[in-house]
């Protein structure tokens, strides 16, 4: 497979993730605006990911596939939001890696402390089930982050290759 085919496959795999992040971003933004400004950075990073995927698909369909000229501002949108997406992807990749490399005793201790801080969860879900769910989510975030980082690096190469499509 050539690079463009892999880029297209990863692009289509990132669409449902972008939709999920878009919904989550609305919730996180409402939480941030209703009194928890610490969530603003996460809301910004998730919005960057969603905008990056949309701009990337626009460039893929209109620029690469149809050979139509694109505005130079599209290239700027892609680059700026790619850096934000790279930031959130590296964070998710590091968190998932930490979960994988943490031994079971430490992971059990950390998760039990998290559950103790959430009294509404303590009686409803067992610690073992929560650990399994935590590992599954960490695995998914690892895969999504690796795909996103790969997509961004490939996209920068494609932006250079198809630079003639952007009008000045």
What does it look like?
The chain has 168 residues and is an all-alpha fold. Helix 1 runs antiparallel to helix 2, helix 1 packs across helix 6 and helix 4 packs across helix 6. It is elongated. The two termini are 32 Å apart.
What distance separates the N and C termini? 32 Å
How much of the sequence lies in strands comes to under 5%
Please write the string of helix (H) and strand (E) elements.
HHHHHH
Can you count the helices? 6
Largest sheet: none
Summarize the model shown:
It is built from six helices and no strands. The protein is mainly α and 168 residues long.
List the helices and strands and how they pair.
Elements (H helix, E strand, L loop, with lengths): L2 H31 L6 H26 L6 H30 L2 H14 L1 H4 L4 H35 L7
Helix pairs in contact: 1-2, 1-6, 2-3, 3-6, 4-6
């Amino acid at each position: 497979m050539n690079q463009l085919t892999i880029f297209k496959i990863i692009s289509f795999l990132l669409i449902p993730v972008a939709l999920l992040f878009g919904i989550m971003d609305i919730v996180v933004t409402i939480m941030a605006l209703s009194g928890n400004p610490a969530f603003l950075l996460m809301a910004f990073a998730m919005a960057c990911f969603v905008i990056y995927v949309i701009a990337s698909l626009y460039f893929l369909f209109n620029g690469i596939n149809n050979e139509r000229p694109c505005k130079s501002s599209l290239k700027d949108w892609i680059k700026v939001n790619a850096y934000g997406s790279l930031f959130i992807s590296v964070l998710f990749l590091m968190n998932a890696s930490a979960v994988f490399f943490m031994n079971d005793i430490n992971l059990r201790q950390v998760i039990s402390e998290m559950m103790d801080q959430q009294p509404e969860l303590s009686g409803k879900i067992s610690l073992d089930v929560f650990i399994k769910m935590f590992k599954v989510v960490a695995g998914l975030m690892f895969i999504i982050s690796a795909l996103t980082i790969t997509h961004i690096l490939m996209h920068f190469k494609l932006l250079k290759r198809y630079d003639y499509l952007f009008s000045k």
